[in-house]
Amino acid sequence: MNPQLDPTDLGILNLLQENGRLTNKELAYNLNRTISPIFDRRKRLEEMGYIKKYVALLDREKITNSLVAFPHIVLTSHGEDALASFQRNVAGFPEVLECYHITGEYDFMLKIMIPDMPAYNAFLRQKISTMENVGNVHSSLVISQTKAEIGLPLLV
Q1: Class at the top of the CATH hierarchy for domain 7-47
Q2: Level-2 CATH architecture, domain 61-141
Q3: Which of 18, 61, 115, 153 is 20 to 30 A from 147, alpha carbon to alpha carbon?
Q4: What is the pLDDT of residues 24-46, one digit of tens each?
Q5: Could you tell me if 109 and 100 are in contact, meaning their C-beta atoms sit under 8 angstroms apart?
């Protein structure tokens, strides 16, 4: 844990992960503090980049019947330029929700969301397979989701 974060900072972060709409007054009440120091701490946490942004989490199943897939990608070259080029390219694809450079049998794992199987096929054929250095793609498709946490486990 970062030594710059004390229990009050961690409390603020934990509460905001649960509900990003909490006011400084509500944070102060929950942490048994006054509003002014909570305001200052929250602002400092934002300025230092601990809090990147505030977003609304949407229920994917209520909005769309999209397919979620995890393509695992093997590159043919592993030089710094090849890795950076791949990362730059996939960062520009709106279908890609997450991109991880990983250890093991594969070099990268993506999390993508697309409307259906034909769209997934087109994504692989027109975007992924046309990129330099892509040697192999192994796909895992999501059948169901049991748990999805986005908050980080912080010990207070």
Answers
A1: mainly alpha
A2: 2-Layer Sandwich (3.30)
A3: 115
A4: 999 999 999 999 999 999 999 99
A5: yes
